Amino acid sequence: MMTMTMKVVCSVLLLLGLSAASAMSSGVSGAVSSGVSSPASMTSSPSSPRMKLTYKELQQFNGVKRFELERSCCFGALLLDEERGRLFVGARNFLLSLSLENIAKHEQKIYWPAPVDWREECNWAGKDINMDCVNYVKVLHHFNRTHLYACGTGAFHPTCAYVQVGHKLEDHVFRIDPSLVEDGKGKSPYDPRHNAASVLIGDELYSGVATDLMGRDFTIFRSLGHRPSIRTEKHDSRWLNEPKFIGAFAVPESENPDDDKVFFFFRETAVEAHGFGKVTYARIGQLCRNDMGGQRSLVNKWTTFLKTRLVCSVPGSDGSETHFDELRDVFLLQTRDRKNPLVYTVFSTSSSVFRGSAVCLYTMNDIRRAFLGPFAHKEGPNYQWVPFQGKVPYPRPGMCPSKTFGSFESTKGFPDNVIQFARHHPLMFNPVTPLGGRPVFLRTGVPYSFTQIAVDRVNAADGHYDVMFIGTGQQAYDCSAVHASPVAVTGLSLPTDIGAVLKVISVPKGSWSSTELLLEELQVFKDSSSINNMQISSKRQQLYVGSETGVAQVSLHRCSMYGKACAECCLARDPYCAWDGHACTRYLPNTKRRFRRQDVRNGDPNTLCSGDYHKQRVLERRLYGVEGSSSFLECLPKSLQAQVTWTHQRHPNNPREEVRPDDRVLQTDRGLLLRRVLRRDGGVYQCHAMEHGFTQTLLGITLEVLPSTSPASSPHSPSHAQGQSTNQKLWYRDFMQLVDHPNLNTIDQICEQVWSRKHGKAVPDPSIETPASDALHSGHKKWKHLKEVRKGRNRRTHDGRPASRAPRSAGE
Ligand SMILES: *[C@@H]1O[C@H](CO)[C@@H](O)[C@H](O)[C@H]1NC(C)=O
């Protein structure tokens, strides 16, 4: 028991050390110059989410469903099938079909391992038999009304298969037809660590992938169907230079299908930044669906391939830009006009010095404009990249052969000079810049990166909002802060609190600017593993999330969690939710109910909830404290952005006074801690939460102070050393509190105290004498009070509560 508790304390200390180290490293980022400017101007949105729900809290609320599979992992491919009501999943050695209603129920499985001889071959080549030489299903597409198309690494032997899923939901067919298994080269990667980006259009597969065992020959490849397969120029760094493919999408350009284009999103080593070392740029590449390759040169190669840089940056204080170049994910939000979806992207930085992540939004107009701009051209004495000034041949490379823009029937009919120009100028000079010139959402100095994004357009009372669901996970670059940690502890695992889902909206503020609101942070996996895939169903209002260890399902909203009062619902500013007169519930704009109240833009309960909030009864409870021992007055606001103040009224005749924290009275995120109760502490305490200019009283606690009888807790107990050693005693007491109390939740509280003491928020007064024996004896009483408060609170809320901002302990 004792050793276990000590371990918990150690890991708490380790976490504190780490947070201190990462705070330090983000503090110096401005001073180190490696092409990274000061992030001083990056004052992003409030740093904490309004609501933070741990896995446990989500579970208590029945807010998360989970699918896991023994002896499998790496649920990297997710495919939504709204009509059949299924979520198809590609994992290690398995294909799965889960129910969209509840992924934990009615699953169907296909065991799809790599054949033994391939595994042996892979093992002889020096790969790990269990990690590498197995089949990771990486590619999953709808093929036709009865079949899916799936590809896996097949122990470094890419393989694809047609998967029969039946006509209708009732068919319950889910199997691989063994006669329909084929070579997956150019469709699936060989290496499980690599990814492919692909899109299946008609009966053709367009994929960006490495096509060789060594992972050096990267290509954008068209296969399947009846036309000859076609690819990018081989080993030409101007075309592709060590790319990492992220996404592929088909977007029509006009009403004429001949103009349809396919866009690839990737990041690669920038040829144009040669001379600045190895620099990564994010790219968007385009090609025409009706590209048939050239006739004499570029035979079976793309003749319409163009690419350009995707810029996502913020201006620094010195006028330079800080770039986010590590493109991680792309989501196309369809609008009414199929030709103009909105392109939502997530980026992290490629710098190991300055860490941050951003969401950037692009329009198809800006993307098309870049491809119609000047070509990049290498010229001059220094071979610099400049805009091409000469005459561009006709038809302009990048244009699809169609009646809309010319008279060419096929790319095979393009003149030789067009083909030659296309071959040498795949890169555009102008980059694509984001809408508004800067990210729509930004986070810096956090221990995770954005890895995934899915967006839902929601109709609210005051217009529509694009709700962004952002998956987080491991940094592209490993954190150096770990090594710089002053706490050298070995054998303890590092913090894994990185995989979460953030729910964010951008609210217009004035006519030109907007402000971002981080509504929720959800820990959807118990082990907080990095999120590597996300699919959204607007129809079912569900989000499906994949990671290394499992698949999770959460609702897009949890309105009732915001509270039981109109003001709480209104302050949440969640476009999914509104006050219906009785509760905070899902807002549907077409249901004509007069008393639906919602104000996402302003979130002002004074105008919206007038009359309503007065009716809310303030919760009252009673607490007994023993003179000389400590008491904890717990009050948890639902919102982490609320500012809590306490008032104290000693006697009904006395005025209500604001509690001013000092060495004896500590205000923590979870409540008020009276370290050593005095007789004059008795009376009525009220806890008030202020948010967005609106104040509400959450709780009233009547504290009755009982005179102490135990000699051990008497304030006259022998005093010991001063200064330094008193400090040690306080630490020791914190240990003892942990030993005493079985509920690990309270560790958060203690961390909070330790944390604030370490950081000088409340330096302990040497005059406070707290002998260890005092803590030992009075501990039980103290925790009994705490438990009473806790029990009371559990009765009050069955629907969970916001988490503390304190560092997580290893036990949670
Ligand atoms: C779908 O494709 C598979 C594989 O080519 C084929 O066997 C099947 O008949 C097709 N189904 C339909 C409805 O066309």
CATH topology value of the domain at 232-441: Methylamine Dehydrogenase, Chain H
Q: What general form does the structure show?
A: globular
Tell me the total number of β-strands.
42
* CATH architecture designation of the domain at 232-441: 7 Propeller
Small molecules (ligands, ions, cofactors) in the structure: 2-acetamido-2-deoxy-beta-D-glucopyranose
Radius of gyration: 30 Å
Strand order within the widest beta sheet: 1-29-28-27-26
Question: What do you see in this structure?
Answer:
This protein is α+β, with helices and mostly antiparallel strands. Among the domains are: 232-441, YVTN repeat-like/Quinoprotein amine dehydrogenase (Methylamine Dehydrogenase, Chain H, 7 Propeller); 446-480 and 495-547, no CATH class; 559-614, 2-Layer Sandwich (ligand-binding face of the semaphorins, domain 2), CATH 3.30.1680; 618-720 and 753-796, Sandwich (Immunoglobulin-like). Helix content is 17%, strand content 32%. The chain has a 5-stranded mixed beta sheet. The longest helix is centred in the N-terminal third of the chain and has 27 residues, at 2-28. 2-acetamido-2-deoxy-beta-D-glucopyranose binds at residues 143-147, 162, 180. This is Semaphorin-3B. Belongs to the semaphorin family.
Topology of helices and strands:
Elements: H1 2-28, E1 51-53, H2 55-60, E2 64-67, E3 77-81, E4 86-91, E5 94-99, E6 108-111, H3 116-124, E7 137-142, E8 147-152, E9 159-164, E10 175-183, E11 197-201, E12 204-210, E13 218-224, E14 244-251, E15 261-269, E16 280-288, E17 306-310, E18 313-315, E19 321-323, E20 326-333, E21 342-348, E22 356-363, H4 364-372, E23 376-379, E24 384-387, H5 416-424, E25 441-444, E26 449-460, E27 463-473, H6 481-484, E28 501-509, E29 513-522, E30 531-537, E31 542-547, E32 551-555, H7 566-572, E33 577-579, E34 584-586, H8 605-608, H9 612-615, E35 619-626, E36 631-634, E37 643-649, E38 657-658, E39 665-668, E40 671-674, E41 683-691, E42 694-706, H10 724-740, H11 745-758, H12 772-796
Parallel strand pairs: 1-29, 35-42
Antiparallel strand pairs: 2-32, 3-4, 4-5, 5-6, 7-8, 8-9, 9-10, 11-12, 12-13, 14-15, 15-16, 16-17, 18-19, 20-21, 21-22, 22-25, 23-24, 26-27, 27-28, 28-29, 30-31, 31-32, 33-34, 36-40, 37-38, 37-41, 39-40, 41-42
Helix pairs in contact: 10-11, 10-12
